[in-house]
Amino acid sequence: MSAEHPSVVQTVREMSRPVWLLLTGMLVNRLGNFLQIYLVLYLTDKGFAAYGAGLALGAYGVGSVAGVLAGGTVSDRFGYRWTIVASMAGAGALTTLIVVLPSLPLIVVVAAVVGALGQAYRPASSAMLVELTPERQHVMVFAVYRLAFNLGTTAGPLLGALLITYSYDLMFYVDAVTSVLFAVFALTLPHTVAGKDAAADGAGRGSYLGVLADRRFTLFMLALFLNAVVYIQHVSVLPLQVTADGNTPELYAALLSLNAVVVIALELPLTKFVQRMPAKLAVAVGVGLVGVGMNLYVAGPAVAMFVVATLVWTLGEIVGTPTVSAYPGQVAPPGMRGRYIAAAAMPMQIGYAAGPVIGVTLWTLWPDGVWWGSGVITVFAVVAALAGMTRPATAPAVTDGEPAVTESPIAEAPLDAGAPRAEEDLAASPGGR
Q1: HSE on the CB side for 326, CA within 13 Å?
Q2: Scanning 124, 221, 291, 382, which has the fewest C-beta atoms within 10 Å of its C-beta?
Q3: 3-state secondary structure at position 392
Q4: Are 129 and 26 in contact (CB under 8 A)?
Q5: Which residues form the Major facilitator superfamily (MFS) profile domain (predicted)?
């Protein structure tokens, strides 16, 4: 049993040195990820108008979305190691320019490029985890990946606030140094190259058109989009609901803190059991619990009800997200792993962008409708996940002319066939948590 479903301790002990370096580099990078968080405050402190600071932050966001897509393509064509190195070294170098640029238009352009470079590493890092980890450890390793990501995301703003007490400029220099350190770590990673027959199998196979032609995977992407529209309501509508029910903003802050603490404390221990579930069931249960949790907010203004609802959707996040993170890399055909991982991130980003507009608009017309609507949308998301999550045949990648560090190619089999079969694949969280 332990061989098929490794424990947290067993997984950590068996992680290879490159995996440790990758996770450490990502943690260091997240600890120093200050630009997006403090850009508006920095620019207004420098005397720029608030609308200009908002424009720069928007440019950073647009660049981030483009960077994920570009990173998927570049990682498949040129290898995961060099994508991470170029992404992090470039982002670090350009971040230092923010400090010295005198005009807002230049800052907006540089912010967009930094956003693109700063996110381009993510498909490559997730794909490399797939290549370097046995399949039976994929879900657990991605839970470890998410723990490092969440710890960095939680501690980073506090470190940034401390640095600001000395100097905004110092904060951005530290941001740049952490990115360059990740690039240095990445230089020691194996040079993994995608399968060389990737583009030879039909028109569009080597592009994102090839991803969209995979109809089952597009159903999986639809499930991610619908789930994102529901999930983001905890940021957009929940604070409105909390205060409208006569509670203080401090309650909302406490609910967010409860979510963060529970995810950090319990995701790894619970993943020990979740990894035994068929993948499509784990995702369906996770997506379903997120929807049920949001739907529970309609139950009334009692603080206890807010706490229960938050714990339910937090459990859904814990159950579903590690498997969601692993799945795109597991089902990608040869030479397409980076693109599949990047493509899976896009519907979530679109959902996170559209969800607040949909939710707040509906809430102004019918407050309870947001939470009932979340339940209805979740039904469709669960159906899409169950219908879309099957595994096609794949082949191993190539590392400097030799097979990548994997134990065997994945045989063709549905993901709901029970215990994992072969040992080769993985992907990243998309997005944030």
Answers
A1: 34
A2: 382
A3: coil
A4: no
A5: 1-399
Strand partners, 398: 193, 403
Locate 21 and state its tokens: 């370096």
Token digits of residue 230: 């529901």
* Best CA proximity match to 118, nearest among 201, 29, 196: 29
**Other CB atoms within 10 Å distance of the CB of residue 372:** 14
What values do phi and psi take at 193, rounded to 5? -115, 140
- Tell me, what DSSP letter sits at residue 299? G
Residues whose CB is less than 8 angstroms from the CB of residue 34 and which lie 6 or more positions away in sequence, other chains included: 156, 157, 159, 160, 163, 171, 172, 174, 175
Q: Which of 181, 194, 147, 188 is nearest to 321 (CA)?
A: 147
**Residues 6 or more apart in contact with residue 3 via CB below 8 angstroms:** 136
**Exposure string for 173-197, b = 16+ CB within 10 A, e = fewer:** bbbbebbbbbbebbeebbebbbbee
Residue type, 180: V
CA distances from 46 to 35, 75, 104, 163 (A): 15, 37, 11, 16
Place of tokens 């991470």: 84
* The last residue of a domain, from among 193, 211, 236: 193
Quick one: 360 and 318 in the same domain? yes
Tokens of 197: 């027959």
β-pair partners for 403: 398
Based on the fold, state whether residues 126 and 49 are members of the same structural domain.
yes
Q: Which domain holds residue 22?
A: 8-193
Q: Are 289 and 315 in contact (CB under 8 A)?
A: yes
Picking from 357, 428, 404, 347, the residue whose alpha carbon sits closest to that of residue 132 is 404
Q: 425: phi > 0 → left, psi -120 to 50 → alpha, else beta; which?
A: left
pLDDT tens, position by position, 304-353: 999 999 999 999 999 999 999 999 999 999 889 999 999 999 999 999 98
CA 421, CA 392: separation in Å to the nearest integer?
13
Structure tokens at 231: 């999930």
Q: Same structural domain for residues 204 and 240? A: yes
364 alpha carbon, distance to own chain's centre: 30
Length of the chain: 433
pLDDT tens, residue by residue, 162-219: 999 998 899 999 999 999 999 999 999 987 665 544 444 444 456 899 999 999 999 9
Q: What are phi and psi of 210, to 5 degrees?
A: -65, -35
DSSP label at residue 32 = T
Identity of the residue numbered 160 = G
Q: Are both 222 and 86 inside the same structural domain?
A: no
> Quick one: angle between helices 303-331 and 138-164, nearest 10?
120
